[in-house]
Design a protein that fits this description.
Chain lengths: 198, 198
DNA sequence: CGCACACTTGACACCGAGTGTCATTTATGG
DNA sequence: CCATAAATGACACTCGGTGTCAAGTGTGCG
């Protein structure tokens, strides 16, 4: 075992980022996103506004940070699927990650609350869609190399990956708006079967 | 013929909005979106900043306004399709509007240039995705009443409409990035056939 | 131990988007 | 022609975000 995989500086930096994000979400859930000012947040964290912006490039990034990671994991997972597996099946498998992401969250309540705030806030929702779209592009790149159909003038792979993500979003949304009445995986199966029965 | 379908005030208001949007797009294409300030724009239009914001609620709305209309038309068009037509076919027909939207534009060059600016600008792109998502919701409402499957806990209709929109976006993107090498309609057919051959 | 160097922080000034307010101008309709 | 409503401009203000610089804090090294 290697003694220090990350330099000390980097570790404290990540710790601060983590605490900051957590504190922010708590404040957002309590008072609302627009009502929580960066100055409030910085004060609550005991730092200056300027210092806050050295940890997060924007207020939105406080909320959107997690999706970054998720996208990369999805792309990795897809690359790890057997090459001869139909792409639709691979995508279904890969989306299992998202289920984990939700269900394994220790403080699910806050996460869900925050997720709802995002959907109700115009700018945040737009930003959220942008992140999903970036996820999708990562996965699309992977899918193109996997299928060998990498001609950018061919819209078909993009259409398939996009369709799969639509299923993911439909399931996600339903799961949130029905207060988790059904397990996420079931919703996802229903959605994906409606497009391409397997 | 009715003498005044719209009150005079409303007509001048729309005229000003139109000129403003046109002027703005010209400036954005010429100097860039971030580099064009609202003060610049207001000055160029011979009005104060405050007055500008009485015509447009935000800088983004200058660019996004058109998508509003498009979404409503799409929903209307869908409602007008025969009730027994398969939803996938109806959606394909309805998307013909978008083809018109592009191809019938008198000053296509500026429109395409602006569309590229949107895609390259993080905030604008996010906002654009948000508008598309709203379009999708309008269409989804219509699709739900049409199919009679209006249970919001059922993700299937959302998945199908979402998939269709993914095809639309895939075709749209391809059309833009390949500099209109193929007609939009063909790309759309390719994309939609890849999901559900008809 | 002490020094030099890199990194981090806070303070401050500044920019652009967007809003509230109010007085002034401009159009509309009787 | 006049009263009333709407449109405008001017001004001050908030908030997100950035550039700059000086002061603080830790780290590695001789």
């Amino acid at each position: 075992m290697q003694s220090h995989p990350l330099p000390v500086r980097e570790r404290t930096r990540r710790a601060v980022r983590g605490e900051l994000a957590q504190l922010a979400v708590d404040l957002f859930v309590e008072k609302g996103y627009d009502e929580t000012t960066i100055d409030d947040l910085a004060a609550a964290a005991g730092m200056s506004k300027r210092t806050f912006f050295r940890y997060f490039a924007s207020k939105e990034e406080l909320v959107m940070g997690k999706y970054e990671v998720l996208g990369e994991q999805l792309a990795e997972d897809l690359a790890a699927r057997p090459a001869d597996e139909p792409i639709w099946v691979s995508l279904r498998q890969v989306f299992g990650r998202v289920a984990e992401y939700f269900e394994s969250e220790a403080r699910g309540a806050t996460t869900v609350a925050m997720e709802k705030i995002v959907r109700d806030h115009p700018t945040l929702n737009a930003s959220y869609l942008d992140r999903v779209s970036r996820m999708q592009e990562l996965v699309l790149d992977e899918a193109r190399t996997r299928t060998g159909r990498s001609d950018p003038a061919d819209p078909r792979t993009a259409a398939i990956v996009g369709a799969a993500f639509s299923c993911l979003l439909a399931a996600w949304t339903t799961w949130l708006t029905t207060n988790q009445a059904q397990p996420f995986g079931e919703l996802l199966d229903q959605a994906m079967d409606a497009i391409q029965p397997t």
